[in-house]
Amino acid sequence: MKGYKNVGVELNLSQLMYQLYEWHILRKLNPENMPKHVALIMDGNRRFSKIQGHIDVKKGHKFGVETLEKVLNWSIDLGIEIVTAYAFSTKNFNRPKDEVDGLMSLFNKNFKRIVSHEKIHKNEVKVKVVGRIDLLPDELKKSIEEAEKATEKYNKRLFNLAIGYDGRLEIVDAIKKIVDEFKNGEIDIDDINEDLVSKNLYTAGLDDPNLIIRTSGEERLSGFLLWQSSYSELYFCDSFWPELRKIDFLRAIRSYQERERRLGT
After folding, report:
1. Burial of 177 (0-12, 13-18, 19+ CB in 10 A)
2. Poorest-confidence range of 18-27, 151-160, 220-229?
3. Single pTM value for the model
4. Helical H runs in 155-245?
5. Sheet holding 157-165, edge to edge
6. What's the rounded Cα separation, in Å, for the pair 82 and 70?
7. Residues designated as active site
8. Chain CA centroid to CA 104, Å
9. Which DSSP helix (H) or strand (E) runs through 47?
10. Which residues, in sequence order, are bridge partners of residue 130?
């Protein structure tokens, strides 16, 4: 019994130290220098499943959804206005059918939840999907439409989920739209500039991300927001996405605030 008691004391002490460190970082953050737009590359769900004793990869993705909800809550508390999360790329369709079907089902379930999600509506969060929605199953497309419609009047905060997304494909699609406008006589050749390209991206109308966070220790963008990330600050975290802690997120924000942003250099 004595050994169990010592373990309990050590856990409580560890939790206390964690809370104190979290509080220490939080109190030093400058509310006036919060990134307006944070983008997330949620990497590591599959590897997390393996290190947990080879649990079903679909369960790893489920844990990932729970982490995303926590991050959204932390972002709301910190006053971050826009969150964009990379959930599923066009290349992910090449994964095993069982995993892809499980992800589509998980997306569908959670978009249905958004329609009546108390915190989403209380905090007036507008939900939008960016990517090739036409590639998604009909049932999921319907759930996305319902979630977007249920939140379309909100403008305080914005949550974007990139599904069926690829940064190069996004730029190609934008070029096609611009070419059509030119062919139809809607624009002249001299009208084509950076602003026009931005207006034709999936993220049209959004501020570019100030900070992009990637988990799992990988240090690349993997085709995420290639055009929009030109001047974004990048932060790479070793934790797999499902095990991301609030303290990890706060460290990313602290790192952002400590940097001297020099656009163009």
Report:
1. middle
2. 18-27
3. 0.91
4. 167-183, 194-199
5. 125-130, 157-165, 82-89, 37-41, 211-214, 233-236
6. 15
7. 43, 92
8. 17
9. helix 45-51
10. 162
